Amino acid sequence: MHHPDLPWPLLQNVAALAESPLSEIAKRLREAVLPYYRSSALVIFTEDCTGRPQKKAGEEDIISRVSIAELDALRASLPDEAPWFGEAELAGRPRPVLALKYAPSHALLVLTDPRPADPGYEAGLDLVTYLWRVAARRIQEKVADAPPAYLLESRASSAERIRVTAELTDLHSTTLETLLAALRSSSLDDAAARSTVTDLASKALVGLRTLNDRTTDLVEESVGTAFERLRENLQSLTRFSDIEFEFIEPPLTGRALPGEVAHAARAIVRGLLLAMMEQPKLNRIRTQWDCDGENLLINVRDDGDGTLAADDPSIMRLDRRVEALTGHLQIDVMPGWGADVVVTLPLAPPAPLAGYIAAWNLAARELEVLQHLVAGHSNRTIASKLGISENTVKFHVRNLFKKIDVGSRTEAIALAHSHGLR
């Protein structure tokens, strides 16, 4: 029986957030927040999720149009983690917002058109802040413990976002450069108009290129930056330990790391440190990263009694994560002297898995439709190219979604890309 004095709705919402999968966390957080703060939409922006940095719930007109550039600009303007009320450019126009940051992961929460559910209840904002921290921590933990399927989907989504952004950049850059050429033409004698429009077009070009650079930054980290984030993330683990931790920094000239490789590497090192710290008579752990141009090379060594085992459940979980990125984990144990762990993570996506695609058992027409989806074609375009009706296209799309076990075009494209289908 529930104790009548306990706030059961709040406790149930906290439990739901603590158990929520990443795909539903924005919806769950919005449901938890609504008793205290109403809003037209809720948006989470976190770079920990390289495949889907935005998680959204609410009005479709807002969540379908909000951009990474807008969220990044809002986050950069916030001085600290304190709740911030104001007007910000979001989904293409200025809107009243409530924004909160989460310092450990640099995540951002935004509520559009916020208003207290009960203006007389002063603790409402404190509860929103608390619920956001629970959700942000849940996201951080889920990414750190990402299963193989998440890593593969994240890598595919990251590659797809770079491709689409590059195409948009080329398209709009060409358009704007043509506009500039026309406005600078001597045949146009309205100097004032030409100067004004030229300035606007130049700013648009700069903004577009900045957006492209920012999108690339989301899916890549320099090896030096990734290693520094590792040290920051491990502060809570190392600060109050009697063990000496030594971090050997990688060369700053190393190749940039794909976002999912950097995140997985940090999680792997943390897992190794936790496993090593379970050993008795441990005094020192040494962590080193390097990059040979094709792989991230991780070396973690301890001076324990050599009891770390490859068949330990925690090591086996880490090995599965390494395998998800087509990497390799090797443990050399020296009884009485400690353990030496070497992890190799390839930076390039895995080679196409034609056999896996064949295992989907797609009919010839379904495979054709999937190839058109990957090319970004609409149902109408697919129907025209294949000489069939749109309803027939929808029929084939539903069938192939069932066969490859996805729920949307985006998921189908990401999965196809992860297996080399272009």
UniProtKB/TrEMBL annotation:
It comes from the Bacteria. It holds the Pfam family GerE. Keywords: DNA-binding, Transcription, Transcription regulation. InterPro entries: HATPase_C_sf, Sig_transdc_resp-reg_C-effctor, Tscrpt_reg_LuxR_C, WH-like_DNA-bd_sf. Gene3D superfamilies: Histidine kinase-like ATPase, C-terminal domain, Winged helix-like DNA-binding domain superfamily/Winged helix DNA-binding domain. Residues 355-420 form the HTH luxR-type domain. This is Helix-turn-helix transcriptional regulator.
